[in-house]
Amino acid sequence: MKSPVRAFIAINLPKQVATELEPALEALNSGDVTGLRPVAAGAMHITLRFLGDVPAEGLEPISEAMSRAAHAVPEFRLRLGSYGAFPPEGPPRVLWVGLNGDIAAVRRLHASLQEELSSLGHWPETRPFTPHITLARLARNAGHADRRRALQALKASGPGHADFEVGSLSLMASHLKTQGANSGPRYEKLAVATLA
User: Fold this and answer.
1) 168-177/184-194 β-pairing
2) Half-sphere exposure of 96 (CA within 13 A, CB side)
3) Which of 22, 129, 168, 188 has the most other CB atoms within 10 Å of its CB?
4) In what order do the strands lie in the sheet with 94-101?
5) Distance CA 150, CA 164 (A)
C-alpha cells in the first residue's frame, strides 16, 4: 500500500518573479536572524489550498476537481505587491510578499477550487484567503527582536516589480527533508490544470 502524499494546490511562478525577489531573500539571509528559514527561490509559489496527507488513490479525483475549477476562470495577470507578515499583529512567524493585479480573478479561482474540493470531502478553510508568496518562516526559537529585525530587513529591501500571467495551477507534493544542509521541503509537480 502506497504512503499518503502531503499535497497542496498552487500557482507556480515564472523565473522572472524569483529573480525580482532575490534582493529580498539576500536581505533576509544577511540579517543573521536566529531561526530564519527562507524559501528557496525556485520553490516559491502561491498556495491556493493546502490539502495535507492525501491517500494515493485520492490524488486523481483532486486533479480532476482542480481541472474543473481551472476551466471556470480565464487567464489573468498578477504583479508583486508589498511585504507583510503573519500574524499581521504581534511577532511575525511567516514573511511574505503580497500581490496586486487581478486579485478578483485569483479569488474566483480559489472559490471555484474550494467548491470543487468540497464535493470530495475537503471542506473549505475557515480563515480568509490572502493571496501571497511566502518568502521565509521563523522557527519557534526565534526571539522577538529577531522577528522584528527580519521583517524590517525585508521591508527595507523594497519589493520587485514583476508582472506575470497566470495560466495554470498545479497539484504539488511536498517531501520533507529534516536533515543535512538542504533540509526543508522539496516540491514535486503531480498534475497541471490550464485556465480557460
Assistant:
1) antiparallel
2) 17
3) 129
4) 36-38, 132-138, 94-101, 76-86, 163-166
5) 27
Predicted pLDDT at 172:
97
For residues 147 and 138, is the Cβ–Cβ distance under 8 A? yes
Task: Give mean pLDDT in consecutive 10-residue pieces for the chain, a chain of 196 residues.
Answer: 90 92 87 83 92 95 97 96 87 92 97 95 88 92 85 80 94 78 76 96
Quick one: pLDDT at residue 177? 67
The pLDDT of residue 35 is 85
Q: What is the pLDDT of residue 143?
A: 84
Task: Please give the Cα distance from 194 to 167 (Å, whole number).
Answer: 6
Burial annotation 142-174 (CB, 10 A radius, 16+ → b, else e): beeebbebbbebbbebebbebebebeebbbbbb
HSE value, Cβ hemisphere, 13 Å, CA-based, for 92: 27
Q: Sketch the domain layout of the chain as residue ranges.
A: 5-194
CATH placement of domain 5-194: 3.90.1140.10
- Burial grade of 141 (CB within 10 A; 0-12, 13-18, 19 or more): exposed
Give the residue numbers marked as catalytic.
Answer: 45, 132
pTM: 0.90
Pairing of strands 94-101, 36-38: unpaired
Alpha-carbon distance 132 to 95, whole Å?
A: 10
